[in-house]
Write a structure and sequence with these properties.
By secondary structure, this protein is mostly helical. About 75% of the residues lie in helices and about 0% in strands. It has 10 helices and no strands. Helix 1 crosses helix 4 (about 55-80), helix 1 crosses helix 6 (about 95-105) and helix 4 (about 55-80) packs antiparallel against helix 5.
């Protein structure tokens, strides 16, 4: 009797391997054959789950964003007002988050010219801003920030997150986890008056 395969789990596994390769060798060097070899599968198995490299790349891009969403959800389940925890969940403070950011940044080039990736990029940025707005709304309801500043603060914090992450990807010594946390603490004191 043939083994039962969880197809979604297999897709996630292949995308995880693709993310690892993207973060190490970049998009241009990535091939379906290389992904198959790293997974220990034939190219036929990989193409069974992803009809094209483009399909695999879009799935991988979305999976990296989903990783961040899961971290944020865990923080906000504990405390819907935890702005610092929410932002830390988005920043590249460890190897897994750094890999997600490398994948995210690798796709910027494609997003400039491909409408699907461009739409995905906008959707992910809007989602991150909506997350920050939700935390800020919760903080406003708790009297911790002025309600009329929620949208502006969310936009400023999103720019801060993206800027810090880009710096951390390209200058991990100066923007270590401790360096990111210290900068974030200062920014939060400046923007919202608290950690």
């Amino acid at each position: 009797m043939p083994a039962v395969v969880d197809h979604e789990k297999r897709r996630q596994q292949i995308a995880g391997i693709a993310a690892d390769l993207i973060s190490r060798v970049g998009l241009d060097a990535l091939t379906m054959r290389e992904i198959a070899a790293a997974a220990g599968y034939s190219t036929t198995i990989v193409t069974h789950y992803f009809a094209s490299k483009r399909d695999l790349l879009l799935y991988t891009y979305r999976a990296s964003a989903s990783n961040a969403q899961g971290r944020v959800n865990a923080v906000l389940a504990r405390d819907p007002c935890d702005l610092k925890g929410c932002i830390e969940a988005l920043l590249p403070l460890d190897e897994a988050r750094l890999q997600d950011w490398k994948v995210y940044l690798a796709f910027w080039q494609i997003a400039l010219v491909d409408p699907d990736f461009s739409a995905e990029q906008r959707a992910q940025a809007n989602n991150a801003r909506n997350i920050l707005q939700g935390v800020l709304v919760a903080r406003a309801q708790a009297g911790l920030v002025p309600a009329d500043q929620v949208d502006t603060l969310a936009r400023r914090l999103l720019v801060c997150v993206v800027g810090m992450a880009v710096q951390a990807v390209f200058d991990p010594v100066d923007w270590s986890g401790d360096g990111q946390r210290a900068f974030l603490d200062a920014e939060l004191r400046s923007l919202v008056g608290a950690d």
